[in-house]
Design brief:
alpha/beta; 243 residues; 43% helix; 9 helices; 2 domains; Rossmann fold; single chain; two-stranded antiparallel sheet
Length: 243
């Protein structure tokens, strides 16, 4: 009853609020004529959607599956350095623009239906930050994205993993160095062990570059009994646009 009253009140005051404070594009901050999306048409035109037929998608899928820990993969966009999408992800990670994560998570949901539509997931799991990094930032951007994906596809978010070792940034590391950097960096939260055994798990991150992080997380989940582990991200770069 209380929830219904809050929803009714929100629906009542939103038009007046938006008249005084018109919604703006999350990328360029221009006023939005169409509020069904939080990103304006001009910015949308500069972001390339990824489909299951794209060479980049097929290449990344093959790379991830070859590791033996990830069974499938979905991603919403092609990452381009200094592009609109990089700006959005930067706002989410460093400027506390958490509503960006909500929008991006919804779009991952659309890609999941195309690329992994036949998979019945039991849990969606965010890639964890080190506790010190999360305290510094105030939130985990992957968890925000996860919760939006959860709402879209109706599967619960579970923080099954924890980062037990601080790792240096992956940005300037090559594929081999990235794999070494995250080796042994993650562990299962023991109280969630029963939620892993025999389950179909979806790992979610903002960007999957070489796949080293999701592969290591998938390895931990499978070691503790997960049936199959899949991965999803907002975007993937090609080898000329590594973030």
């Amino acid at each position: 009853m209380l929830k219904s009253a809050i929803t009714s009140f929100t629906n009542f005051v939103r038009p007046a609020y938006e008249l005084i404070y018109p919604p703006t594009c999350l990328a360029c901050e221009c006023h939005l004529a169409d509020i069904t999306s939080r990103i304006c048409a001009d910015c949308w035109s500069k972001i390339r959607r990824l489909t299951s037929g794209d060479d980049l998608y097929c290449e990344k899928l093959n790379e991830l599956v070859a590791g033996g820990n990830v069974s499938g993969f979905a991603s919403a966009f092609h990452f381009e350095k200094d592009g609109v999408l990089q700006n959005l992800i930067h706002q989410l990670k460093y400027r506390e623009m958490t509503r960006v994560g909500t929008e991006l998570g919804r779009l991952i949901g659309e890609s999941l239906r195309e690329m992994l539509g036949g998979v019945a997931f039991d849990a969606i799991v965010p890639i964890p930050l080190h506790p010190a990094r999360e305290r510094e930032r105030g939130y985990n951007q992957s968890e925000i994205i996860c919760r939006a994906v959860s709402r879209d596809i109706g599967v619960p978010t579970r923080s099954l993993l924890k980062r037990i070792r601080h790792t240096k940034t992956q940005t300037k590391l090559d594929s081999r160095q990235r794999k070494e950097n995250v080796a042994g960096a993650f562990a299962l939260r023991r109280r969630f062990a029963r939620l892993v055994d025999g389950k179909m798990v979806l790992l979610v991150d903002d960007i999957i570059t070489t796949g080293a992080t999701v592969d290591e997380c998938a390895r931990v989940l499978k070691r503790h009994g997960a049936d199959r582990v899949f991965a999803a991200s907002v975007a993937v770069p090609d080898h000329t646009h590594l973030p």
